Amino acid sequence: MQGMSERQYAAHVGLSRGAVQKAKTAERLVLYPDGSINAAASDARRAETTDPSKTRKPPEPTLKPVPEAAVTSVGETLREEGLPAPVAGGGTTFLQAKTANEVLKAQERRIRLQKLKGELIERARALALVFRLAREVRDAWVNWPARSAALMAADLGVEPAAMQKVLETHVRAHLDELAEVRPDFR
């Protein structure tokens, strides 16, 4: 019967060929008459004669702890795209994390492209534009009673100065109410 060569047995048990040769010399392996190694019998003899404290155990795979914020972020990204998110407390698979990463890269590229096309502007610039527009509207309303009071007074047959004063009071009260409204710029 044909057994294994030293090289084949070394691959079978996960040792170097030199270690197999040492075990063969120390007669810890069972050999066939042709000098080949009887794998099953040699495995049993090695198990009996090898001190367990001297054997190398393969290292336990160490998993790096993943911050909860990262897991949450992956879940949110996947949910936004309509993909199944990781179960709470169940952890995230590599495939889910990789999918979320690819989705985020695609979103980033889309935003960069929209910015290059001029479809997006920076937040500070948008706030400055809105502020300038609001100031122009406010100034137009503040000046409106002076321009319109004389025409309205003529239509109603009242004194223009009194009409202007009443209009200014109401316009300023309304502008004060608008000034208290604080838009939420998220």
What can you see in these coordinates?
The protein is built from 7 helices and no strands. The chain is mainly alpha-helical and 186 residues long. The longest helix is centred in the last third of the chain and has 34 residues, at 123-156. The radius of gyration is 41 Å and the shape is rod-shaped. It starts with 5 loop residues before the first helix and ends in a 6-residue tail after the last helix.
What is the string of SSEs from the N terminus onward?
A: HHHHHHH
How many helical elements?
Answer: 7
Q: Describe the main β-sheet briefly.
A: none
Distance between the termini: 79 Å
- What is the 3D form? rod-shaped
**Average predicted confidence as pLDDT:** 85
**Residue share in helices?**
55-70%
Percent in strands: under 5%
Which structural class is indicated by helix and strand composition? mainly alpha
Number of strands: 0
